[in-house]
Write a structure and sequence with these properties.
alpha/beta, eight-stranded mixed β-barrel, 9 strands, globular
């Protein structure tokens, strides 16, 4: 299935064109820090109206376990407030790519895991990690990531190298471009069913 991801950077979205291009779903930025993404509610409503499956992502800043748990609590509060507590069909994704996350006292995998397991403990059953191929290969100690964690890797390439190099991971999504087409200038990914 083809999916796109959207945030407040995308305001005038042609939802019919997305459906017409064969996209089956969208992953929407819910926010970062304590700031709800200004377009989140609008994007969710449009995705539902268009009959698209959706997931959400949170842009992380945590460089320690306590901060990551606080970020997870923020996401939980927003899901309860704006999605009636429902686990989005295409998952909850922790976007780990901000360099501030690398400034903590231990490898960034520990705050990432704390965010994911905090939401798992609240009965959200589909919580994963989004990051670049570079981070997944060089910054995140994948040997310490629980093996059940879904992975969404970003690598603008003709193939998903992480899938080849680490077949043991639970690969769920591969983001292969940041510009699907001139009429749909969005990040596009392949969602592995």
């Amino acid at each position: 299935m083809k999916i796109i991801d959207l945030s407040a950077w995308q305001t005038a979205v042609n939802w019919q064109a997305i459906a017409d291009a064969g996209f089956g779903g969208v992953i929407l930025k819910i926010g970062e820090r304590s700031e709800l993404d200004p377009m989140f509610v609008n994007h969710v409503n449009n995705a539902v109206a268009q009959g698209l499956k959706y997931g959400i992502y949170y842009y992380g800043h945590a460089n320690n376990i306590d901060a990551a748990k606080a970020e997870a609590a923020q996401v939980d509060a927003w899901i309860k407030a704006y999605l009636n507590g429902v686990n989005p069909e295409l998952g909850i994704w922790y976007d780990a790519e901000d360099n501030i996350m690398l400034s903590g006292p231990q490898n960034v995998v520990y705050p990432i895991t704390a965010f994911i397991t905090s939401l798992n403990a609240l009965r959200y059953n589909y919580v994963g990690l989004y990051s670049s191929y570079n981070w997944l290969s060089n910054q995140i100690d994948l040997t310490c990531l629980p093996d059940y964690v879904p992975i969404w890797s970003a690598q603008y390439n003709s193939k998903n190298d992480l899938l080849t190099e680490h077949p043991e991971l639970k690969h769920k999504i591969w983001q292969y471009t940041d510009h699907y087409s001139d009429s749909l200038p969005y990040d596009a990914s392949e969602y592995y069913e």
